[in-house]
Structures are given as structure tokens and as C-alpha cells.
User: Fold this.
Amino acid sequence: MATKSSIEWTEMTWNPVTGCTKISQGCKNCYANRMALRLQAMGAPRYKSGFKPTVHFDLLDIPKTWKKPRTIFVNSMSDLFHEEIPTSFILRVFETMRDCPQHTFQVLTKRSKRLLELGRSIEWPSNVWMGVSVENSQVTDRVKDLAKVPAKVRFLSCEPLLGPLENIPLNGIHWVIVGGESGPKARPMMASWAESIQSQCETHDVPFFFKQWGGVRKHKTGRLLLGRTFDEMPSISGLVQIAC
Assistant:
């Protein structure tokens, strides 16, 4: 449940929680759901319940065994702030991340309301980057919720980008990732949508990372935007802590 990752903006994945439920359009073709059902069919013990949210206490301390500093995406197969995940378990995950200052942990959620509810009571270590998924203009309230959370680095994952995002409230946001949907039945991303977000990030001096165009065969569509690759990452020095 901890593996090297092919995701362009991270190195490893760590999944002390697996399983989720769909809450918005970005979830429609969820890759984690497909993978979980495939693993269930293969008899993988951690997926005997398919994609039902499940906590794995025995995986909580895995990052402590890695001495070399790594960038770790937390719960690529779930959502840490899912309503079925006990608050006590979420706090245990944060305890592990605090105990591993050599690593950088990237946490991503669509459940920004619960994040905001719990966020001010969490002790946020500087090595935890907190993000929300923003796939279209219907869910931009997630950005406003995130901006109120006292994480050292706050980021947006606009993937799969399903529509234009104009006038994103980038105050207090330190990084933006954009990517098109990939895999079976992938929905298309318009170039103008990605270019607009890149322009907004440039105007607000926010690092911009273009992950992919996506599609059924994403290796053929590549990562070039405006004739170049964008691999910008946030710097943790001098960041604004809480948005006004």
C-alpha cells in the first residue's frame, strides 16, 4: 500500500485509507474506483470490500521506515476527509506525518467542508501540503475553504479539468496543478481552459504545473502547453499563511 508513483508531481503513494464515494463530476470516471474493483477481482486482501472506505491501521507507520526524504501523495486510492473516516484516524495520519519531517506529504480532498471543520484543530507540520480538487466552476467554494486552513502549502488540483475556471480566488494558494482526464471515456479538456489558468497563476505569481492533456491514450497527447512544459513547484519560504 506504499508504492513508487508514476504521477508527475510526486514520488510515492501511501494509502492508510482506501475506498471512497462519488460526490461531483470529477469523480465520474474515477481511476481509483476502477483499480480497486480490479484488485478486488484479483483477490487483493485490502480490497475485499471493493471501493468501500476502509482504514488500515497497520499502514500508519510505513513512512517512518523510509529514511531517505521522499515526496509522498497521501491516499491516492481514497479521500482522507471522507465522512466515513473517523476523526481519530485522520489525526493519527497527521501524527505520522509530523513524526516524519524528512518527507513531504501531499494530501488532496474534494471534501473541503470537513477539511475546514477539522483544519483549525489539526496541528499542521510544515512538511504537509494540503490541496483540494477543483474540476469546474461549480466547486470553486473548495478553494475558499482551503484558503482558511492553516497548512504551510495549499494547492489546487484542477484535474480532470472539465470546464473553464475564470477568476480563481488564488489569494493564499501556493500551487496549481492542471490536467485533462485520462483513461476509458475520458472527457476532453479545451486548451483555452488550461491556458487561462496558467495566465491567472502567472499574474498572481503562483507556481503552475501542467500534468497532462489526458485522453484515452495520454502518452500520445503529452504535456506541452503553449509550446513548453510547466513543472513549477511551490517554495515553502515566505508563504502567506492564511488568506484574508
Notes: The helical segments are 31-41, 87-98, 112-119, 141-147, 191-203, 218-221.
